Amino acid sequence: MQPLYRNFETQAQIDTQYNPSLALAAGDNPMQHFARRAVEARSTLQNSLDVPYGPTLAETLDIFPADTPNAPVFVFVHGGYWRALSSKDFSGIALGLHALGITAVVVNYALCPYVIIDEIVRQTRAACAWVVRNIAQHGGDPSRVAIGGHSAGGHLCAMALQTEWARDYGLPQNPFAAAILVSGLYDLALLRYSYLQPMIQLDEATVRRCSPAFNVRPCATPLWITWGGAESSEFAHQSELYYGAWLALGNQALLEEQPHANHFTAIHGFESPSSPICQWLNNTLKGTVP
Q1: How many Å apart are CA 216 and CA 187, to the nearest integer?
Q2: Residue 103 in contact with residue 175, Cβ under 8 Å?
Q3: Cα dist. 48→42, 135, 138, 181 in Å?
Q4: Which of 37, 33, 29 lies closest to 271, judged by CA?
Q5: Per-residue pLDDT at 267
Q6: What mean pLDDT is predicted for residues 258-282?
Q7: 108-112 contacts: CB < 8 A, separation 24 or more?
Q8: 127 and 53 in contact (C-beta within 8 Å)?
Q9: Where are the domains of the chain?
Q10: In 3-state terms, what secondary structure has residue 286?
């Protein structure tokens, strides 16, 4: 049988690797955890919700400012395979960051199939540009902005890292002080043959444009690429592929598996100030990394 892509011969093989819900135990609903922590964050932390960063109704930010002025900033882009969830589902990521004096910004964006992935990339870039230009009005330090995302959000942040910021936005070419990509997708080709295709509508041109592993540019932003050790082997492959492409351009990054974490728990660390994720962001943004 002729492979669909690499060594995958059937959609079922691809879906087994790329549908994390298939690996959950019966009755396990990870979104219940995120919903509970999101409500906790919005009810206990100061916030400005649904701040517009672009012209469409979907283009909004939820800002959770630190208690101290001129604070470092972390911009989070959520997952959901570009076709599900919203910023409100992930307010909880602000909990660990706020405890460390970091302003958190959670990005909302339009979803497939109402828009295509290129438009979501554009919205992500617009959101990041808005934060750099405007976060000082919300107590943040625009010179200490980090970005990060999970799953599809990891893909979108990788696309942001390859942006020609000086040419296209008039910003510094490397405007981010740090980036962290969790369980991201960096080669989209396999997804054309997956259960997601009817919703995300990938074609060959989109795969070429929107696969970060094949479009890396030289970039001075400190980067941490991570995924859960309990995820399918393809999430490790995706991270290792992007890491190799990143290093090939002379960039620097950390590549580290999170032992025992699955696709959903891999971002629980944002909720705890003592977690490796929060500590790495805190140390990098505050310039205390050894």
Answers
A1: 12
A2: no
A3: 9, 12, 9, 25
A4: 37
A5: 98
A6: 98
A7: 108/50, 108/58, 108/59, 108/60, 108/61, 108/62, 109/58, 109/59, 109/77, 109/156, 110/56, 110/58, 110/59, 111/58, 111/80, 111/82, 111/83, 111/84, 112/82, 112/83, 112/199, 112/200, 112/201
A8: yes
A9: 31-285
A10: coil
Query: Two tokens at 101?
Result: 């004096």
Please name the residue that has the structure tokens 């283009």: 59
Over the chain, what is the mean pLDDT? 97
pTM: predicted TM-score of the whole model, two decimal places: 0.97
> What's the confidence (pLDDT) of residue 1?
75
Contact 64, 98 (CB under 8 A): yes
Mean pLDDT of all residues in 226-239 = 98
pLDDT tens digit sequence for 45-98:
999 999 999 999 999 999 999 999 999 999 999 999 999 999 999 999 999 999
Q: What fold does the segment set 31-285 form as a domain? A: Rossmann fold (3.40.50)
Cα torsion through 96, 100, 105, 111, rounded to 10:
-30
**If DSSP codes are grouped into helix, strand and coil, which group holds residue 138?**
helix
